[in-house]
Amino acid sequence: MPAQAVSYTAVVPGAGIGTRMRSSVPKQYLKLAGKTILEHCLENLITHPRIDRIVLCLQPQDPWFKQLELTDKKWLTTVEGGAQRADSVLNGLAEVTDSQWVLVHDAARPCLPHKDLDMLLTLADKEHGGILAMPVRDTMKRANEQGLVTHTEDRNHLWHALTPQFFRCAELKSALTQALAKGVQITDEASAIEWAGGQVQLVPGNPCNIKITHPEDLALAEFYLQHMTQQREQR
Known about the structure:
The chain is of the alpha/beta class. The chain has a single domain, classed as Alpha-Beta Complex (Spore Coat Polysaccharide Biosynthesis Protein SpsA, Chain A). Helices cover 28% and strands 25% of the residues. It is built from 6 helices and 11 strands. The strands form 3 sheets. The chain has a 7-stranded mixed β-sheet, sandwiched between helices. The protein starts with 7 loop residues before the first strand and ends with a helix.
């Protein structure tokens, strides 16, 4: 890493249960290509040359994490997660004391390309942070409570939000704290920044950076992981 390159901390909220996976364990502990999804996620992050520390937010009394081989890694700090994602992220941010900027990444996204992360980190040279995202490609339908289409949405300027999401640490702490105090629904870090009046830059990301949510996502994620491994071996 060049002497002038700044390194960053990543916060990974991993206290979710993932009920849509219909699994007896949280989805981040399901096996994929010989390792848990969480292990793939953390190892992919820490092997990026500009990430030197990860703060992992865990469900209180999580019985699965201690069974992993990376529990004693010096680059990994664990904290207790909260009732909601925003609570977990705030707990993680409390451990970030030596960096102006912070990354927040989903524990269920093990296929993040380092090239995408490189592009996101260039935002540190600007006045605002941002997120990886993908333009909406499909026709979007608005439905009513009965599942009937009410109208077709204009997909122009619509994006799928991905992670990591990259913001100034102090700005994100303030936005999350104030939004939670006012009972605002926060679905990701960007929504807190938006609510607080901040700017969020969209950085186009690779479709392989999927969030494993349903059982059928596992096979696709494994395909992407194998492809990424092959690319690294060919360098």
